[in-house]
Each structure stands twice: as C-alpha cells, then as structure tokens.
Amino acid sequence: MADSDKYVSALSRNIRLQPARKKEIISELEDHLEDKTNELIDLGVRQETAKSLAAEQMGDPATLAGLMQDVHTVVGRKELGLVVIPHFLLAGLVALGLCDNIAAVVLTLGFVGIVTWLNWRRGFPGIWSYSWLGVSVAAPAVVLLMLVIGPGKSFQNLMAQTSYPASLTLVALFGGYVAVALWVVTRVVRGKVGHDWLLVALSGLPLLGLTAWVLVAQWSDPSWQPPMALLGLPGASWIVAFLSMATVTAAYMKFGRRHARIGQFLVSAAILVTGACAMLLVNYHPTAVRLTIVALIVIMLAPALRKPLASSLRMMQQVLHTTVHLVGR
Amino acid sequence: MSQQEMLKGNTETLLLSLLLLEPMYGYQIVKEINSRSSGYFDFKEGTLYPALHRMEREGLIEGRWQNTPGGMRRRYYYITLKGRFVLSDRQAEWQRFSRAMNSVIARSTVQPEG
Hints:
The complex is a heterodimer.
Chain A: H1 3-14, H2 19-42, H3 47-57, H4 61-73, H5 77-95, H6 102-121, H7 129-149, H8 154-160, H9 166-192, H10 197-203, H11 205-220, H12 226-231, H13 235-254, H14 258-280, H15 286-328
Chain B: H1 3-21, E1 24-25, H2 26-36, H3 45-57, E2 61-67, E3 73-79, H4 81-105
Antiparallel strand pairs in B: 1-3, 2-3
C-alpha cells in the first residue's frame, strides 16, 4: 500500500462523524493529496517518491483528523438551543398542568417525533437532533416496558379510566406509536451506532433515566403501578428531571474532546438515575438502584466495548492456539 | 510574535479576501496565498481545512463540488453575503490597526549598530 493510501486510511480511521460528512471530508483531503502529488511529479519527482513526499508534507493524519473532528463536533449557540428544546417542551407540558391531557401529550410527542424523523430521513442529521431522537425513543420504550412489567394491571388501569371509543383510540395510539417509533429507532441506531456510538448513547439518556426509575420502582414495590404513579407524581419533580436532562445534554455538546464526553456521560447518567429514584420514589431499594445504574450504563456503552472485546477474544484464541501447539510438540 | 501566530489570528480575513476575488478549492487557495504573499504565507493543511470548515459552519462561505477547468472534481468555496459583511468589518478594523501600528513603529525604527 502506498504512503498516500495509508494516509487516507489513517484519516478515515480517526474521523468519527456521520458517513456523509466523513466521506466529504476524506474526499476533499484526498484531492488535496492528489494535487500535491501531481505537482511533485510535474517537478520531476518519481511517482512513488512523490506520493510519499506529499503524504509527509500533509503532516500527521491523526492530528489533522482530530482538528476536523473538533470543527464538526463543537456546537454553536443556535444548535445548543435546539438541543434543549425537546426537554423544555416536556418540562413546559408539566408546568402548564397538561401532562394528563392526552391530546397535548400526543401533540407534543408527535411534534418531537416528526422533527426527528424529518431530520434523520435526509441521511445527515444535525448533531442537535440526537436529543430529539432521545425523547422520541424514551416515550414508546417506557410505554412498552410498562406494558411488559404490569400485564393486565398497570395499562389496564389506565384503560379503565377512559370509556369506549376513547379507550380504543388510546390503545391504537399507544400501539401504533410504540411500533413505529421502535422501528424507526432500530433503523437509525443500526445505521449510526458504528459511526458515533457515544452520541447514540447520549440519545438514550432519557430512556436510561425513565427505564431505571420504572425498574427500580417495580423491584422496590411489586404493587407499584407505573402509569398511575407516573401521572400522580408532583409536577415539580418532572420539571426538575427534564431540566436536568436538558442541562446534561447541553453540557455534553459543549465538550469537544471525546474522553471528556465519555466521563461526563458516565457521571451524569449515574447522577440522573440516582437523582430520579431518590426524588421520585419514597421507598426505593438502594441495591436495585446501584444494579440498575451499572446494568444500564453497560448496555449504553456496549457498542464501544465491541472492538476491545473482539480483540481480547482474538488474543486469547492465539494464546490458546500457541499453547496447544507447544503442548502437542 | 511568530509568523504562524500572526497567520492564525488573520486566517479568516485572508481566506475571505481571497474568496471575494473568485471561488477556489483548498489546494488552489494554498498556492494563491503563497504566490500573492511572495512566499511569506505558507498555509498548512492543518490550518486551512479546519478554518474553511469552521467558516462554512458559521455561514461565511459555502462549499460546492464542481469540476475544475481540467475536468477534476474539487470542492470550491464561495463567499456568502454574511461573509462579505464580516470581511468588510475586518478590513476596516485592519486599516485602523495597521495605521495605528505604523504610526508608532515608523517613529521608532531600530538602526543597525556600527
């Protein structure tokens, strides 16, 4: 492989952005490398030497990739504003006392879902749209979780409060929303998780908080009925929870460096879950909280562990193979 | 202050000034700036491309893929209306700055010893 090809491969390895943006950046820098090489060839340098010299003159590919990465991951004030909007919308819903108004809830979640969908279907979503995706994911997933946890109990109670045909509409809305949202999310996550797993993990932050809360509540009190308990919570608790998520997301976006983002994600996720459980539940089981935090963080960060785990397995296989070979001799 | 430090503070102004003349692609920009400054400014890729992309995100310039006269596909940068306004401000500021600097430096030129 020529030095110029190695240079482009190194650039590609070190830029972790959405595929469309990444491809554009690599193409542009590759063109620059080609122009540099051609200029050297025109000056009489041999082709292979020209390729090596051009790659050398371009400097360290990892540094250049890092600089390009920084430009495209640091967000401005406008994007920061867009990042916190879905959390503010939910906080506003509660502040206005509209969280038990199904039409208002459906309209809000529908609006968040449509904006997310419009932004993601173009193939190049803005960095701000991950928090919108997170809210779009959390609601159907928690509804599904509640249906699974309390079959014939929790969801049925909610249904019992509404009369026919409103109850049927409610079932259709919940069912359709859960199915469509999970389908969209699965497609999005499958396509994006390999390119920027950290942003995908961040999108799951609302899901992390709400799921942990539901799981811990169910563990601590088996008679706990999620929908009723959710609707019966003090509004201030909800507002604080949504505003905390908005703050966490905005702070995360302002961190340019990847390791700082990972650290912030771990700390904020732990604080979010513990805070939500402590604030929203009267009698929660501390062990349940700890285990839930660990389990959910591991799940969220699992995509990042794929490569280290795979290489560790390969190394163990090699060691085993060598040992068997030596013993056999 | 080193040449690189001075360049860092004025990269945007230089790039906007150049793109005001005509749309250019990255390699062309490096060559043009080098030629116009008689070799004084030597843009490195690590300075040029992050600056171009940052300026594009700020709406000062716009990148478009198109063919060169030689038929190669390159990403050309165009100055936007916002870019023109920003450049106008920077040029005015630079004029004030250079006048002030010259008025101080010109009166205190160091004479060679001996």
